[in-house]
């Protein structure tokens, strides 16, 4: 908790501000899985009452970041292999459906933007700009989600991706760039050809690649921790 230095200020509610600070701290592994967080510690740090903190803890529990244990309090949720598998299974289904719908709705301009974003991923990778690569990668997938025209799917996937960021920081995985670029190109080609079946299949295949890469890195990280 000593690393939390964000100032609670602005127009958002106290609960929203606390959620943002704690979520970002957990995502960036400044608080480790299994570490306890107390309402009293947060209250004393920010000079606020415990009510908004309790509400923030409940929200973070619903998002999967915290586990509330009776008589012990809140602890940062562990990251498990099954969590990664579950994430990609849901992501593949939802993004596959989004790609199928996007085939009908994305304009030529949207498709050109997908190609630009894929090129940005390549350039960032060549410049070893991991942060830029992640932004371009997320923008690529978000554009397809927006293109499907279903806001609920966008919201659900956004919530999943927030938790997924924990996995990225946990294993520090940004690998197999060429495979990612190739699969993105296949997705773009399918959308340009207005082939809904192929677009969906390509998106599901891309999710499977992400799963395989991350599971490999996760296992390597776990082995390192044990040693």
Layout of strands and helices, then pairs:
Layout: H1 14-27, E1 36-37, H2 39-46, H3 51-62, E2 66-69, E3 73-76, H4 81-105, H5 108-126, H6 130-147, H7 151-171, H8 177-192, H9 196-226
Antiparallel strand pairs: 1-3, 2-3
How would you describe what is shown here?
- With 227 residues, the protein is mostly helical.
- The chain folds into two domains: 14-76, Winged helix-like DNA-binding domain superfamily/Winged helix DNA-binding domain (Arc Repressor Mutant, subunit A), CATH 1.10.10.10; 81-226, Up-down Bundle (Four Helix Bundle (Hemerythrin (Met), subunit A)), CATH 1.20.120.530.
- Helices cover 72% and strands 4% of the residues.
- It has nine helices and three strands; from the N terminus they run H-E-H-H-E-E-H-H-H-H-H-H.
- The chain has helices at residues 14-27, 39-46, 51-62, 81-105, 108-126, 130-147, 151-171, 177-192, 196-226, and strands spanning 36-37, 66-69, 73-76.
- Strands 1-3-2 form a three-stranded antiparallel beta sheet.
- The longest helix has 31 residues, at 196-226.
- The protein is globular, with a radius of gyration of 19 Å.
Summarize the structure.
The chain has 227 residues and is mainly α. The protein has helices at residues 14-27, 39-46, 51-62, 81-105, 108-126, 130-147, 151-171, 177-192, 196-226; strands at residues 36-37, 66-69, 73-76. Helices cover 72% and strands 4% of the residues.
């Amino acid at each position: 908790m000593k690393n939390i230095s964000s100032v609670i200020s602005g127009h958002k509610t106290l609960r929203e501000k606390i959620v943002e600070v704690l979520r970002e701290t957990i995502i960036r592994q400044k608080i480790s899985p299994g570490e306890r967080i107390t309402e009293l510690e947060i209250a004393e740090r920010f000079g606020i009452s415990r009510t908004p903190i309790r509400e923030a803890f409940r929200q973070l529990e619903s998002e999967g970041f915290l586990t509330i244990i009776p008589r012990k309090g809140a602890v940062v949720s562990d990251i498990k292999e099954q969590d990664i598998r579950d994430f990609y299974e849901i992501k593949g289904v939802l993004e596959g459906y989004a790609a199928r719908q996007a085939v009908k709705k994305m304009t030529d301009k949207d498709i050109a933007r997908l190609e630009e974003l894929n090129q940005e991923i390549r350039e960032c990778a060549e410049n070893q700009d991991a942060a830029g690569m992640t932004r371009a990668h997320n923008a690529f997938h978000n554009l397809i989600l927006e293109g499907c025209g279903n806001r609920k799917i966008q919201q659900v996937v956004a919530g999943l991706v927030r938790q997924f960021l924990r996995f990225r920081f946990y294993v520090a995985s940004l690998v197999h760039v060429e495979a990612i670029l190739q699969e993105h190109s296949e997705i773009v080609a399918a959308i340009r050809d207005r082939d809904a079946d192929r677009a969906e299949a390509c998106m599901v295949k891309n999710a499977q690649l992400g799963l395989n890469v991350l599971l490999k890195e996760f296992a390597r990280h776990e082995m390192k921790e044990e040693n």
